Amino acid sequence: MQLSDKLNFLMQITQTTNKELAAELSVDRSLISLLRNGKRGLPRKRDLVKKMALFFARRCTAEFQRHALSEMLGQSSLRSDMPPEVLAEHLEKWLTNEPDIVVQMMDSMAGQSVHAGVRRSRDISPPSSGKTEFFYGEAGRREAMRRVLETTREMDAPGSFLVASDENLDWLLSDYSLTLQVQAELIRIIEAGFTFHQIMPAMNFTARYTEALQFWLPLYNTGKIHVHYYPRLRDNLYLLSTTVIPGRCVQFSTSIGMKGGGITLFSTDPEVVQAYTELFQDHLALCRPALMAHTDPGASMPQFLKFFSAPGLTVQMVNPLSISSAPRLLLERSIRDAGNPGWESVFRTYLQEIPRFEERLRQGPFIDMARLSTPAEIRSGQVFVGSPNATYPGHPRYTPETYVLHLKNILRLMDTYENYVFLPILESVPPEYNLFVNESGIALLVCTAAPFLMLELRRPELVMACKEHLLRKAERSGYDGIQRTKIRMELNALIRELQG
Q1: How would you classify the pairing of strands 433-438 and 314-318?
Q2: pTM for the full model?
Q3: Is 210 exposed, middle or buried (0-12, 13-18, 19+ CB in 10 A)?
Q4: How far apart are CA 253 and CA 35, in angstroms?
Q5: Are 423 and 369 in contact (CB under 8 A)?
Q6: What is the torsion angle, in degrees rounded to the nearest 10, for the CA atoms of residue 134, residue 138, residue 142 and residue 143?
Q7: What is the CA radius of gyration of the chain?
Q8: What is the bridge-based pairing of β-strands 160-165 and 238-245?
Q9: What 3 state SS string does 270-288 have?
């Protein structure tokens, strides 16, 4: 969908004229006309798009407008109770590009935080022991979920929380305040010590799946959820949802297709709970790990070594320059200068891996996308070796001399190995994540903002989405033929400036 189509849609449902939008953005009306007829593309100034998104978000307050947005963007959460400021963020992403599951994951890792401590709901009576009840429609599902969460609050000691769902989350995401409350309650359950297992839904509808993934990502960020997926194909007819607290309660619902509604069972009957616990365990036995979260930088090292040892195409996007392309002399200096055993061990490991890494470059393509720091950043000591921030105290920093050493080694790798491709990322605002994908079926997603978090993605559809995301980015930049020569020229120009 083109920008012109999106803009025309927003202006129609808000009854906005070219004159009104131009006045809000402080631009000439002719620019709005050019944007609407497709003769001008997306404005380069991101602030302009941000103001445009906020303007339309504040004008979309009626239920029919929010419903139209929800249908157009494929997101259930864009309903009347979502604050305009939050809606503006969704509109900005929609205006700037088509929905990208990887971008949504990045945004959720870097930008979302959910806090526990939501007040206990007063309108919920404790579930009766040994009783089975039935609820109907979306309101019934919300009530059953409230009862499940209430049960966890009444437990003297943490237990297990088992959840599997193929259904869409309209019943939850269409109520923005309830969404935040349930997220916070689940965070509380995790932090209280519950063993949490989730079987992810099928990726049949990308927009719906992405929205559900945004709901779950803040919980994955805790590093304390066991996430699984069922590897076989499933149809979209009977969709099931199960939440079990073994020994305490079960919630089970079903619907036809993506329509929602249906009947929801909630039971505290010991025999019913035991039966659904066994069903969940049988289902889990057929599943595979979907993702694992790592919160300790040192403990994540084996995953990186396994990643770089895999044959086949490798694509990565990092900030700053990758340690894998660092020269021997820089690594030796970093070992000497490291004021922390953690970083000393990391640099020593990569030093030992140099022969294997270069042998790897003889075997298959390696696309290395990295943000080039500015001379001012380097001279002021703002750039850490191998990481965008000081994850450990005593983390070595680049000097102009050591940064030049690294750039010269990248040029050497480009000259020596045809398989090695370096693509500079010339972004003024550093990306808030590093992403690594290869043919081994694993993607590593590292949040570069503190605290450290790495998601090890194993679900094939997610890994493929990450791979396509990076390959599209690489292809837009270009790296063949004359472009390879231009990249060498850019690196040499930066070297000369740093040596100036």
Answers
A1: antiparallel
A2: 0.76
A3: buried
A4: 46
A5: yes
A6: -30
A7: 25
A8: antiparallel
A9: HHHHHHHHHHHHHHHHCCE
Inter-helix orientation angle 460-477/101-111, to 10°: 100
Residue 371's Cβ-count burial label (10 Å; 0-12, 13-18, 19+) is: buried
The candidate with the shortest Cα–Cα distance to 254, out of 79, 134, 76, 78, is 134
Among 237, 144, 303, 229, which Cα is nearest to 462's?
Answer: 229
DSSP 383-427: PBTTSSS-SSTT--B--HHHHHHHHHHHHHHHHH-TTEEEEEE--
Calculate what percentage of the chain has a pLDDT beyond 90.
48
Q: What is the pLDDT of residues 235-290, one digit of tens each?
A: 767 788 999 999 999 999 988 766 666 889 999 999 999 999 999 999 999 999 99
Q: What is the mean pLDDT of the chain?
A: 85
pLDDT digits over 54-65, tens only? Answer: 999 999 989 889
Distances (CA, A) of 394 to 336, 398, 432: 11, 13, 22
What are the residues facing 366 on neighbouring strands?
314, 420
Phi, psi of 243, deg, nearest 5? -130, 125
CB atoms within 10 A of CB 21: 23
- Burial letters 308-339, b for 16+ CB under 10 A, else e: beeeeebbbbbbbbbbbbbbeebbebbbebbe
3-state helix, strand, coil in the chain (%, to 5): 50, 15, 35
- Structure-block tokens of residue 62: 């009626």
The C-alpha atoms of residue 212 and residue 104 are separated, in whole angstroms, by 11
How many residues can be counted in the chain? 500
Residues 25 and 12: their CA atoms lie apart, in Å, by: 18
> Distance of alpha carbon 14 from its chain centroid, rounded?
31
Place of tokens 């849609």: 9
pLDDT digits (tens, 9 = 90+) for 130-181: 799 999 988 899 999 999 999 999 999 999 999 998 877 888 888 888 899 9
Distance CA 456, CA 159 (A): 26
Selection from 79, 73, 78, 77 nearest residue 99 by Cα: 73
Task: Check whether 88 has a pLDDT greater than 50.
Answer: yes
Identify the DSSP state of 127.
Answer: P
Contact 163, 198 (CB under 8 A): yes
Going from the C-alpha of 182 to that of each of 24, 62, 185, 388, the distances in angstroms are 37, 25, 5, 33
Cβ-based neighbour number of residue 481 at 10 Å: 8
